[in-house]
Amino acid sequence: MASTNSTSTEPDPLTPSVVVDDVAVRAVNKRYEGLLTVRTRAIKGKGAWYWAHLEPILLRSPDSGEPKSVKLRCSLCDSLFSASNPSRTASEHLKRGTCPNFNHSSLPSPSPISTVLSDSKNNNRKRTSPNQNHSLPMVDYSHVVQVQDHDVVVGGANHHHHNQSQQHLVLSGGKDDLCALAVFEDSVKKLKSPKNFSPVSPPDLSKEQVDSAVELLADWFFEASGSVPLSAIEHPKFQAFLAQLGLPNAMLRREISGSRLEDRFGVVKAESEARIREAMFFQVGSEGWKSKEWRCCSEGDGLVKFVVNLPNGTSVFQKVVFCGGGVVSAKYAEEVLWETVVGVCGSVVQRCVGIVADRFKAKALRNLEVQNHWMVNVSCQLQGFSGLIKDFSKGLPLFRVVAENCLKVANFINNESQVRNSFLRYRMQELEYAGLVRVPSPKCDVLKDFVSVFPMLEDILSCARVIQMVMLEDTFKVACMEDPLAREVVGIIQNEGFWNDLEAVYSLVKLIRGVVQDIEAERPLIGRCLPLWEEVRTKVKEWCAKYNAVEEPVEKILEKRFRKNYHPAWSAAFILDPFYLIKDTSGKYLPPFKYLTREQEKDVDKLLTRLASREEAHVVLMELMKWRSEGLDPLYAQAVQMKQRDPITGKMKVANPLSSRLVWETCLSEFKSLGKLAVRLIFLHATSCGFKSNCSFMRRISSYKHSSVSLERAQKMAYIAAHAKLERRDFSNEEEKEAELLAMAGSDDGMLAEVFADTPLV
Hints:
The structure is a single chain. The protein is of the alpha+beta class. Strands 9-8-7-10-11 form a five-stranded mixed β-sheet, with helices on both faces. A three-stranded antiparallel β-sheet has the order 1-2-3. Strands 4-5-6 form a three-stranded antiparallel β-sheet, with no helix packed on it. Helix 12 (397-415) crosses helix 13 (417-431). The two termini are 17 Å apart. Pfam families: DUF7963 (PF25908). Residues 101-136 are annotated as: Disordered. InterPro entries: DUF7963, RNaseH-like_sf.
């Protein structure tokens, strides 16, 4: 496949060194553009202060003119610095006075606490008579200049208060004893002058203010999704914080986990049930049947989330179900799904249009659909596209070859000490990062879990130049003479086909992962499924053309996965949703029947006939023919298809997502029978992912399962937190947010992570 490039007979093929140089040039350009983006953002007020004085500079090679490195130039004195750590450069060059033109008055300089302690010591000494010398050798932190072998060297004028011959204060615990000594000093001072150390009185708050503050605090605990445990309330520092604010801390934990939890849960539960009652119909979403992540988070227990998707585009959390740590049968899943449907809508089960789940399409979902003719049960497309990576890794020999070769290269670099040391040194020099190549676990089957192999591919691609530099070292050449494994690794690295194949596999996996990320962010409806799969087909064909891959086996794998996920409701929703109407030569906006295959057209007729009652089945088909020939008024069609730019992502999105359903309920009232089915179809979600929960909370819920009281409280907290997340449309994970914050902490170069994460391909 893609490796055919390596056997090409075209003249002047690229050598590995040229390929590596090209990678380095693109990496330098990428870093330079990333720094410019960070600086531009900072100048607009969304970044660190020092970017006003530091400017990224792209240095070029005097011989070739190609970009060589990126530096930071101080706009105040024109000095050049490494671009590896702008925050450190700002501290050393600007804050510490190295730059002669920097104005230090603009920076805050708080007084050290030691000066306050020093003043209090002097005052106490004045009040203490020589006959009442109970003082210990006092330690002034501002004068401690060295700690070595448990000797503390104290300087400054005040130390002459003690015996002048005592130059070294010896503490058996070393430097850590200073804090304990200071606490002891404070105790002595309090005994001497107790009135001077009276604590600051907390503010006097009214009962209404206290209740309001405690209510906000409780809401924060409930809505934090368990990322902050209730036991944190009893932490001494948090207790001191509450006391400083004048808030009560006695029995606060019991109050929050008791009466306030019950009250808040009652309000949220009533609100959710009211919203479900107001909806004429809904869809049940079920996630967690297939998620290894949840089983890992909950220590082996399967936790399945249930949400209710409403026609107005919102979702309501329903419950969490424990499925145990073993294999879940389709029969058990079918029973749980049906119990959920009955629990939501009672005896009027026809209100549930269908179910979307991340597993059991062929059995549980299919059985429920057969037993209840009005239901449309679909599989989650997030799982469908994720499965493509597994399909490609199993069906394309290229994936196996690339994985095996990369494992040989990575293990050789990581395990050979001399090679490893050289690799770490050059990686730090070139990429300002000294980590080893990430490799999957030895227990991992790379063909079944290729996602775990992807980081290794990223590392080897990004370190192509580093690996080339390691190969040029004398120690590596000597190793090649003595070690056949080293010679094999050299042969792999010097083979142009290896890099071509690696890039091909990397780009295909990245393509599919990009589609999965878009689906996770957009959460498409089922009318979007057919266009989405067609877009992926087009991208995969372009991939085949770019890397000279044979299309037939790739398309066969893609088609097999498509048929495994396909549901006739995709075709029906696609031609019934006014958003997908096409303007013909006469100016009419007609349904896109021409994009359906003959089998898919038959699927539409069969599905609509099944969903309709026996009396209305023929009427529905007649109205479908009328819809096919007449379509929708151009003015209304254009209004439905109007788009606007999303201010967050920058992508064009539908201006009014609910307009497709509203048109059927208002402007297309003549399609009475077809309209009733259309509004129940086009609102259905194609994914079951509602929101992400943090692993710590799921582990906590799992640990409570043996206590009915604790489990009930934990489930109520989960319900409140999930309700708040869905209200805010916050589908992210607390761990992911924290990782983003930590990546940007200390400097405003958060985007630099993207520079290295998205390293250009060879």
